[in-house]
Amino acid sequence: MRNFAILKLIKPYIALTFVITLGACNLSQGHFLGLGGNVSPTQNVVAIESALNATEVQVARQVVPTITGTGYATISAQPAHNINQKRLMAIRVARLDAMRDLTEQVHGLSLGGQTTVVDAILQNDTTRASVQGTIRGARTLRINPVGSDTYEVVLELDRDMIGHILQSARQ
After folding, report:
1. Boundaries of each Lipoprotein LPP20-like domain copy (predicted)?
2. 125 CB contacts (<8 Å, ≥6 apart)?
3. From the CB of residue 95, how many other CB atoms can be counted at a distance below 10 Å?
């Protein structure tokens, strides 16, 4: 898998080397990319520049991944008077849980822990986790009932937002 990723990265450079070599070999003869022998050197230079520009665009373009977040909530645990309200509240809670999952992936998770040991015996072990951040552009992919008492909500973070986050992180 890693070799494939490396090949994917160097492929535009291999193509660029091929185009430059082909152009240098055939430029004096007026043959470049199948243009024939009656082509002026200026036309060959234009053809080379356009091939280089096309290759540069491929190198500069990056694949932006999709980030998905999944959340779950039980219907019976919701504090409502009827089953329909409980279902709606479970969907809302599952959506918020999916947003929390997205926020953890984008902004990270802050962990804190405390352990108390008395006379070489563990007395108390506490771990706390918190996440804080802003998520924009998330869209709902699906809302599924899971079993008879649970809802699952899957959200996807907008590719433009991910690109913006990556650009901000690089600066």
Report:
1. 67-158
2. 113, 114, 115, 116
3. 20
Please give the Cα distance from 23 to 45 (Å, whole number). Answer: 9
State the pTM of this model: 0.57
Torsion of Cα atoms, 162 then 166 then 169 then 171, to 10°: -130
Q: What is the DSSP string of 14-52?
A: HHHHHHHHHHHHHTTTT-STT--SS--HHHHHHHHHHHH
- Per DSSP, 66 falls in state P
With tokens 């986790």, the residue in question is 129
- pLDDT tens for 48-63 read 677 766 655 554 556 6
Whole-number Å distance between alpha carbons of 92 and 26: 66
Residue 73 CA to residue 97 CA, distance in Å, equals 8
Residue 156, beta-bridge partner list: 68, 139
